Automatic annotation (TrEMBL):
The chain crosses the membrane at residues 47-66, 139-160, 216-234, 246-265, 301-319, 340-360, 366-385. It is found in: Membrane. GO terms for cellular component: plasma membrane. It comes from Stutzerimonas xanthomarina DSM 18231. Pfam families: MFS_4 (PF06779). This is Predicted arabinose efflux permease, MFS family. InterPro entries: MFS_4, MFS_trans_sf, Sugar_transporter_CS. PROSITE patterns: SUGAR_TRANSPORT_2. It is a multi-pass membrane protein. Keywords: Membrane, Transmembrane, Transmembrane helix.
Length: 389
């Protein structure tokens, strides 16, 4: 019997790739946007439009991952997706036109969606092969570190770089990290194809059944519920908190710091109490965070929202991915891609519905009720997901 393989290099490689595409690709745009506006590269409206193109690319990438869900397909497409991220991030250092930047952010989003689905899926299948699935959630620590790293890079380079040059730190750091992360995953001892199972009846190829349909409907609520505070919390802080309060400038930093322990915490809770029960608790926690911003006055509500939502949304992602594979072990990567595609679709719907609400005369603060309703929807459907060991 061979020794159990070392988990740390594999989990670190997966976390590194998520750091690259999510931290240095997607989330770096959030702290960069105010400076790009100040430099005269973009207006606020153009910046919001460009962000939407990136979200659309993320959805396209997840749909492509749904098509390329087998291990052999992942091994072929994953390095190309990483190359697309590196090329588009480098190209962003050379363009300042809105049209060109929109195209690059669309392509960068496609690479993000592909890698965000395929890298954790490949690692989850490898962990399942070695009976170590309970460690799978630790891959998402890369998102947490990437969130903080992107903020630090933008802050430290401010005053040194301007305009399109502000993309250089993310571009240069992406190259060695993407190369190293892929080299580790390329060497995983995974069979090219799933061996046939000796059963009287072949496993179903359906994505939706009585077990998985409630999980899909629940995850739709998670996507819309988390995106509102994660997009608009700093703006709501400016409206709700007294001028000069530290939260006016630091609410996003609180969110970033709160994410750091969340993959370990929710991974552990899922291992102790079961993913279904832990997932229900994650919905309750996020709902409490959004309600805090709605019902508690000023800084206390904003702070609680930042901590509870920031410390939970990644837990919802990792627990849902793992539970989906438990429900349908024979099509884990395909289920993962379908769930991420649905999640990204409801992410797009959240800001759009907020815009409709604002055009009808509603306030940004009251739009958080949409997020609370979405999370309540998710919790109700989670109660219908069967518990599995």
């Amino acid at each position: 019997m061979s020794q159990r393989p070392a988990l740390f290099p594999v989990l670190l490689a997966g976390a590194t790739l998520l750091l690259v595409v999510h931290g240095l690709g997607r989330f770096v745009y959030t702290p960069l946007l105010p400076w790009l506006v100040e430099d005269g590269v973009l207006t606020v409206q153009q910046g919001a439009s460009i962000a939407s193109w990136n979200y659309l690319g993320y959805l396209i990438g997840a749909l492509l991952a749904l098509r390329w869900h087998q291990v052999t397909q992942i091994r072929r497409s994953l390095p190309w997706a990483l190359a697309l991220h590196v090329v588009t991030t480098l190209a962003q250092t050379q363009v300042e036109s809105v049209e060109a930047l929109s195209t690059l952010r669309l392509l960068n989003g496609i690479s993000n969606g592909l890698v965000f689905v395929q890298a954790p899926s490949l690692i989850l299948e490898w962990l399942a092969r070695h009976r170590r699935v309970s460690s799978s959630g630790l891959v998402y620590l890369g998102v947490c570190v990437g969130l903080i790293l992107s903020s630090l890079m933008v802050s430290l380079s401010n005053g040194v770089l301007q305009g399109a040059d502000r993309w250089w730190p993310a571009a240069l750091l992406s190259i060695p990290l993407a190369w190293w992360g892929w080299r580790q995953l390329a060497n995983l001892d995974m069979p090219p194809d799933e061996p046939p199972r000796e059963t009287t009846q072949p496993p179903s190829g359906r994505l939706l059944d009585r077990a998985s349909t409630p999980l899909f409907l629940s995850y739709a609520g998670a996507g819309m519920g988390y995106i509102l505070p994660m997009t608009f919390l700093p703006m709501v802080a400016r409206l709700q908190v007294e001028p000069g309060d530290w939260l006016v400038e630091s609410s996003w930093l609180v969110v970033a710091v709160a994410t750091l322990p969340s993959p370990w915490l929710w991974n552990r809770l899922g291992a102790l109490f079961g993913d279904t029960l832990a997932l229900r608790f994650s919905y309750i926690t996020q709902l409490a965070g959004v309600l805090a911003a709605l019902l508690l006055p000023g800084a206390s509500g904003i702070l609680l929202c930042a901590v509870l939502v920031g410390g939970t949304f990644l837990g919802t992602v990792l627990l849902t991915q793992r539970l989906a594979r438990t429900l349908h072990p024979h099509q884990g990567p395909r289920l993962s891609a379908a769930l991420i595609a649905l999640y990204s679709l409801t992410q797009l719907a959240g800001p759009w519905l907020t815009g409709v609400w604002l055009s009808m005369g509603g306030s940004l603060h009251s739009a958080f009720w949409l997020g609370a309703g979405a999370l309540l929807w998710g919790l109700i459907w989670m109660l219908l997901v069967p518990r599995r060991a």
